[in-house]
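re: that chain from earlier
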Amino acid sequence: MPRPRRYRYPSDLTDAQWALVEPLMPPAASIGRREKHDRRDLVDAILYVVRNGCAWRALPSDYPPWQTVYYYFARWHDLGVTERVHDA
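^ sequence. v structure.
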């Protein structure tokens, strides 16, 4: 079970924004191991990088590891998720 994040950042989604974004996310894989990190934390971490213009490695330590965040960003980008979220 991932530990809860200690801090919230201005770049984090509000509950209302997450309610719009969550249905646009692809379903979790039905086979293999379960996702270790909360999807909202992953999206918030991606937004932190985008809004602050920092390197992936500069993510605060209370987000999931930067390698994991980048993996999901790249995967979701290839699936067209980022474009759907942007348009919404």
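Residues 15-19+36-87 form one domain.
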